[in-house]
Each structure stands twice: as C-alpha cells, then as structure tokens.
Design a protein that fits this description.
Layout lengths: L1 H16 L5 H9 L3 E5 L2 H4 L12 H4 L5 H7 L3 E7 L7 H24 L4 E3 L5 H7 L3 E8 L9 H8 L2 E4 L25 H13 L2 E2 L6 H10 L5 E7 L8 E2 L1 H9 L3 E4 L11 H10 L7 H17 L7 H15 L4 E3 L19 H9 L4 H26 L3
Parallel strand pairs: 1-2, 2-4, 3-4, 4-5, 5-6, 7-8, 7-9, 9-10
Helix pairs in contact: 1-13, 2-15, 12-13
Bound molecules: zinc ion.
Length: about 400
Amino acid sequence: MFSMLALSLALAATPLQDDPVTPADRLAHEQMLTLDTHLDTPEFFEHPGWDFNRWHNVDFDKSQVDIPRMEQGGLDGGFFVIYTGQGDLTAEGYAKARNAALTRAMWIQRVVAANPEKLAFATTAADAARIAKTGKRFVYQSIENSYPLGEDLSLLKWFYDHGVRMASPVHSRNNQFADSTTGKTRTWGGFSPLGKQWLAEVNRLGMVVDLSHSSDETFDQALALSKTPIILSHSGPKAIFDHPRNLDDDRMRKLAKAGGVMQINSVFLVAYDDNKARGAVQDRQDDWWALSDAEQRKLIADKAVADATDPYAAPDFELFMKSLLHAIKVMGVDHVGIGADWDGGGGVRGMEDISRLPRITARLRKEGFSDTDIEKIWSGNTLRLLKAAEDWAAKNAAK
Ligand SMILES: [Zn+2]
C-alpha cells in the first residue's frame, strides 16, 4: 500500500518537472488580466468541509479551482456558474430546479462573503481590472441552463439583480426554451416561442447570451436575433474532434463576423474514455472530504492501481493548444478565449488544474503572439462582449 501511495504522488508531481514556463512568460502572465468563462466550482461550495480558500489536490478530491490555485495559476477571476441539470418540463420539475439554482446562487454569495480580503463580485466589464488592481479575485456569475426559470422570465431579472451577467438557454437535453445540441430529437428546430422571449429578456437586461450546449439551429437563430454579440463560454472546434458539442469552422467564422467569441474548452477533444473500474474509484473521490484518513489512503492506493493498469486516455496539453490555435486561425485573436470547463469535466494531461494556466501564455508567446493579443484571449474579448451587452441595455431598455 505504501509503495502505491508513493507511485501516486510521483505521478502527480511529474508534470511540474518539465514545465516550459520561463520567468519572462510568468511575468507576462502575471501582468495580464485573466479570466475563464466557465468555472463549475460552485458545485463544491456546498460540500461540508470543502473550503474555497484552501489548497486542494485534483488527484484527491478532483477539484480544480480554489483561491490558492487561482493565485498560483495567475487567474484573476472568472464566471462562476449557477448550473442546473435538466429534469422534467413540469411544474414540479421547474420548482425543484428553481430551488437548486437559488441554493447554488446563495452558496456563491456565502463564499464571496466569507472571503472579503480575497474575493469581490464583478458585474460590469470595468469591474474586472478594477478588482484585480486591489489584489482580489473577481467573481462574475453565469447561468448554465435556464431550465430553473420555468416559464417565468421575470426570474431572470432576479438573477440579474443578484449579479448574473451571462446566461445559456439549455444544457444537455431540450427544454422549454431551446433545443440542445445533444438532445435526442429536435423539439423546436431552434428556440421555442418562449425561448425567443428569453433571448430578448437577456438582451434587455444587459447579459451576454451563451450558446454552449445549444443546437446548431439554436445557435443560428441566436446569431440572427441577439442584439449584442454572443459567446460560447466552453466549446471547441469540430475540426479537432467531431462531436455535437463542438462547432464547425463555418459557424465559427459566422460567430466571429457577428462580433462573437468562442471560449476554448478542454473537454470533447477526444472520445470519452469510459472505464468501469476507474469510474468506480472516481465516484468514491466525490466524497473525499467525508472520508477518514485510512479511507483516503486506501482510495489513493486504489486510484494508483486503476491508473497504472488502465491508463486514462486523457487528451494532453498539446491537443488543447491545437484546438485553441485552430480557433485563432479560423476566427482571429479578437474572437477566441479560454473556458476550459474546470470542475465540470475539464483538464488535460499537463494542465490538470488551474495552477498550470501560465503554460497557455507561455505557449502562445512561443507561437509568436504579442502579449497584447494574448491578453485579449485571456479577458479582453469576453469583457468587450459584456461591455456591448451593458451598453445596448443602457441605451435601449428600461430596467
Ligand atoms: Zn457545460
């Protein structure tokens, strides 16, 4: 058991030894304003004993984002997600989902309130730089899946009033607003009539429309209907891996032409590698903080065995970069950013958590991109969209 523990720790430590980030890269990274548009970390907030202000190990509890690692990885902030899984389109389903979303929103409020020296809420595009200058991390909020709104669009205003500035209509299955790209059928052929009202309300309030998880038809309609440029907060190019969650080059070009942005995901780069034994070990990791010391040691040992006997065919950092570089080639540096789906299934070999983010900056500099362009990718493009949404709402809509 002890030798297995040693093996596991050795595996975890390996990537740091050949880290190609030079001091100059690191300095450049530190001086850039950086954000990720899809942090699923709020899922961890409600676990008893899990503290956002403590360092966690991805090999232990699978978590990829916390304040110490934001500092280590030079991540100034991001969009923290109020995610709700898709359930039945019934009054009961809507009520349950609304409770889940409100609980998640409450946890974000609690965690920010509990860390006033380290975190601050951001609601305008200008807030990011202002907060970063104070040494704090900025917390934007977004909604992934508008299912919890039920059929009551007035709830969007409630979320706006509590700081939400980005929203997506749909997740993995079709709902009352739109078709999902992974839905088994097409219910609406894009947006439902209520979904078109949803889109208008998101514009009216001054939020950014997020089309990750939407079907191609939903995407096409949003591109035509949205008053401000749209974002795909965690998506990728189909040219790298042909999956419904990824976008074809033609649509990527249309998105760029309409002023939009695609934030590159670290998921859907290869076929999902399902393995029962490894999956069972990973399920046990979900309760890491509830395990005794002895149970944690046993779990580490079992994980080492699972990893050694059937290595996980995870994509690596090079493939993530290939995806990012392809998107930049097709869309241009003004239309690409980073949304790696941390704590939502993201992470690649060589970039297992956000502490490794300086690698992206280092690699882009090596590819010859200027620091100015790299900063657009890290934050400028997303903030431009947020500003456009703010400005349009200020001009055209009364709140
Ligand atoms: Zn997602």
